[in-house]
Design a protein that fits this description.
With about 180 residues, the chain is mainly beta. It has one helix at about 60-70; strands at about 5-10, 15-20, 25-40, 45-60, 75-90, 115, 135-145.
Length: about 180
């Protein structure tokens, strides 16, 4: 399968949202803002251009570590596979593909983010109650997330997983 692998440098735009699925798999997601900077020759300085927002999905141990390590506004480097999706909803609150957790503030800088499609000719611009709303969202299934050390320092702490001991003494003696 051909997938688009990307590495994106940006800032955490939201705090990570962490939960476990019904099967017990840890999941965390957050939004990443990546602003393009260009050299402005006229001002002889760097200038911010446009900002792209990505929904970052992490799973299992990476999800638990992201939830414990990433805070709002921190500079990050994210590596993973890119998915661009067109979505549609008819109600004010949409349900995510991972269960019935609502996607907060979709289309207004929340989880869904992306660009909403304009209304149909002759339609309302308010996204009426029965008119479906469409938008495009960019998501990254991350395999690695880390702090951008070109912009600061970080302290690494290894997380050890508890392993059951074999042949542990029970305190009882046999006759």
């Amino acid at each position: 399968m051909n997938e688009s692998w990307v590495t994106v440098v940006g800032n955490a735009a939201t705090r990570p949202d962490f939960w476990e699925t019904a099967a017990g798999v840890a999941v965390a997601r957050f939004r990443l803002a990546a602003t393009v900077r260009r050299w402005d020759r006229g001002r002889d300085a760097w200038a911010d251009a446009y900002t792209s927002f990505y929904t970052i999905w992490t799973w299992r141990s990476l999800a638990a570590n992201v939830a414990g390590s990433v805070s709002l506004g921190e500079p990050l480097v994210v590596h993973g596979t890119l998915r661009v999706r067109e979505r549609e909803r008819e109600q004010e609150r949409d349900r995510s593909l991972q269960g019935d957790r609502p996607l907060q503030g979709e289309g207004e800088g929340g989880w869904g983010g992306g660009a909403a499609t304009p209304p149909a000719p002759g339609g309302e611009s308010g996204g009426g109650a029965h008119q479906p709303r469409r938008w495009v969202t960019a998501e990254i299934d991350a395999v690695a997330v880390g702090h951008d050390l070109t912009r600061g320092t970080s302290a690494f702490r290894r997380v050890s997983q508890a392993k059951p001991l074999l042949n542990t003494p029970t305190g009882a003696t046999s006759p």
